[in-house]
Amino acid sequence: MAITTDHSRAVADGAHSHGVVPAGSRAERKTSFDLADIPVPTGREEEWRFSPVARLQPLFGEEHGAGGVLTTVVEAPEAKVEIVGKDDPRLGTTGKPGDRTAVTAWNAAAEATVVTLPAEAVATDVTSVRVEGATKDLTAQHLLVHAEHHAEGVVVIDHRGDATLNQTVEIVVDEGAHLTVVSVQDWADGAVHASSHRARIGRDAKLKHVVVTFGGDVVRLTPDATFTGEGGEVEMVGLYFADADQHQEHRLFVDHAVPRCKSRVTYKGALQGAGAHVVWVGDVLIQAEAEGTDTYELNRNLVLTDGARADSVPNLEIETGEIEGAGHASATGRFDDEQLFYLMARGIPEVDARRLVVRGFFAELIDEIGVPSVEERLLASIEAELEKSMSAITGVAE
């Protein structure tokens, strides 16, 4: 058994890096399909203590519409797309909602969009699910992505426009299937978005779950992954870039409930501008039955300006000593002035040197996404964000 922990800390003005915070077992967290079981948060609860509860308040109510977003699916030739009612037996099999926005989204959505990759099928193209804000009306949405046994494919969920959206995304990866799900939050500045991603990973199945967050006023994603069969693997990758007054929050939970499964979590983010706030919480539970588990999670945050804040909290709970390995690392730091000086000393202008440092920070994860169209958009988004900070540094108006 190998257990490693790295709580390196490089705290900038306005940035905070946290070690492990004992907050009770994730196995004991209340989950339910019933709104009455999960009350409206006050902000004092562990799962809400970093969140701007007042800005999320509209999502806590029971009344949601369905017309605030337009959903368009362009499926791979091998994929099947359906619109089903809430009574469809395939819905809800990934587990019960675990917080107020999740249970509200579950109850408020009247129907669901289901994308299925049939058994043994290998998709020859990406399936694209475009979710575009049509109005600011409060909206609930339910998506299910199901890879049947030994299927392979990629599904990209692309969020754009302006919306107030409460969302459920269920992901089912059956025995031997290989599935990549990419969720891109490229909202307009005023959007408010909470999304609960719940994944179930079967025997010898593999899920790559990618989150890319740039836009919006408040974006809060809670991806959960549970293993239901031995030999399962999950890779959770996240990239985010917060600007002034944006709140971006990613709370992950990996439940090792069966033996001999593997999880890898790597999230990186950059932030700039007064009031920019990013939150990353990574919870991993290794249950008593989960012998032979191999897990590691990593979070890194790069603070580009004063007035920005990053909260990073890795939590690892182990109920058995018979594991392959378990560890986590978290660090938040300012822009590396020594690295900048090194580049400038070799004749690279400051603006270009800063771009190189930030691109290098993200480069490894961008290459891991594996979807060229998303990688290109991500590079363009990073460039656009850097233009803002470069203009502030040089005094040039945007």
List keywords for this structure.
398 residues, alpha/beta, 2 domains, ten-stranded mixed sheet, nine-stranded mixed sheet, disordered N terminus
Can you characterise this structure?
- The protein has helices spanning 53-56, 100-108, 337-345, 350-369, 372-394; strands at 3-6, 69-74, 80-85, 111-117, 127-133, 138-147, 152-160, 164-173, 178-185, 192-201, 206-213, 218-227, 233-242, 247-256, 262-271, 277-286, 294-303, 309-318, 325-334.
- It is α/β, with parallel strands linked by helices and 398 residues long.
- The strands form 2 sheets. A 10-stranded mixed β-sheet has the order 1-19-17-15-13-11-9-7-5-2, with helices on one face. Strands 3-4-6-8-10-12-14-16-18 form a 9-stranded mixed β-sheet, covered by helices on one side.
- It folds into 2 domains: 3-336, no CATH class; 337-398, no CATH class.
- The longest helix is centred in the C-terminal third of the chain and has 23 residues, at 372-394.
- α3 (337-345) crosses α4 and α4 (350-369) runs antiparallel to α5.
- It is globular.
- The chain contains 5 helices and 19 strands.
- It starts with a strand and ends with a helix.
